[in-house]
Amino acid sequence: MAGGEGGRDLPSTPTWAVALVCAVIVLVSVAMEHGLHKLGHWFQTRQKKAMREALEKIKAELMLMGFISLLLAVGQTPISKICIPAKAGSVMLPCKPKGGDKSGGGDGHRRLLWYPGEDHRRFLAGAGAGDDYCVKKGKVSLISTNGVHQLHIFIFVLAVFHVVYSVATMALARLKMRRWKKWEQETNSLEYQFATDPSRFRFTNQTSFVKRHLGLPSTPGVRWIVAFFRQFFASVTKVDYLTMRQGFINAHLSPNAKFDFQKYIKRSLEDDFKVVVGISLPLWFVAIFILFIDIRGLGTLIWISFIPLVRRLKLS
Questions:
Q1: Domain extent at residue 34
Q2: What is the DSSP letter of 316?
Q3: Residue 134 forms part of a structural domain
Q4: Where are the transmembrane segments (predicted)?
Q5: In whole angstroms, how far apart are CA 52 and each of 13, 41, 45, 239?
Q6: How far is CA 67 from CA 22, 28, 37, 152, 217, in A?
Q7: Exposed/middle/buried for 134, CB within 10 Å: 0-12, 13-18, 19+?
């Protein structure tokens, strides 16, 4: 096998294989760029300024991820040649070392990547140079070549998942808001205008909206559980929508004003999406801080998930 234990190098690879892989990568990239351009043009023709700005943020995130990938690819070997003492390499580990090797590979026989059926030989494409370089000095790599590769994948998945999660939330919200369009059309009927006539006095505790939100769902601690399960079913009912609509009109407009509350909420959702979809610098530092404190035995990923709940309880 030419190219050593890491596999064949590029000069030993058939040209048709290299050309095929490059063609697929180029076609996928061009198709993605063309699709984003068409989507931006569609937002512009529909006069959706907030959605177009959100799309520009997604493009910026893709460019940032490409630059990060380039830095990790170029710096993979130099980073692995940064040597640290074996004692420092065994401090603040996120997982228990495999095979009882607490030094992180100080004896030069670490199992970086094993493949069954291959006589247990170590395979790591483009790897091992920096690791062996530090082993000869009696030290360990700051991050091994395999570790840099896994970090590369982790950062990429983290950013992509954030964008996908934001887009999925936006899509599900728009899907649920389609029901509200029918309720908004009902507000133009004479029956609704008669029912919401300000001259018809009604006690607050007699309304359907108040009856729905009083009782057990209003108990502190219980209402968060109720709200969690209610979001999967009828989080906003017809009476909730009409009550919020009437309250908004009474607070900001004249009582008998003609106003499309559903369209207003849709625009507000798009404005919020424009802010949420971007990965800001503080968010990157939060991710780095979580990586720093993710030490074995602390249960970081468990207790840190309760921070938003505690913060919400204090605000309420």
A1: 12-47
A2: -
A3: no
A4: 16-37, 58-75, 151-173, 273-293
A5: 43, 8, 10, 33
A6: 19, 18, 21, 11, 49
A7: buried
Q: Measure the CA–CA gap between 159 and 152, rounded to whole angstroms.
A: 11
Query: Kindly report the CA angle at 109 between 107 and 110, in degrees rounded to 5?
Result: 100
Q: Is residue 105 part of a domain?
A: no
Nearest to 26 by CA among 15, 34, 37: 34
How many structural domains is the chain composed of? 2
Residue in the structure block whose two tokens are 């209402």: 223
- Helices 261-276 and 49-74 pack at an angle, to 10 degrees, of 20
pLDDT tens-place string over residues 205-243: 445 555 555 655 556 666 667 777 777 776 777 877 888
Q: Note the pLDDT tens digit of each residue in 69-87.
A: 888 888 888 888 888 888 8
Q: Is residue 102 part of a domain?
A: no
Within a 10 A sphere around the Cβ of 128, how many other Cβ atoms? 21
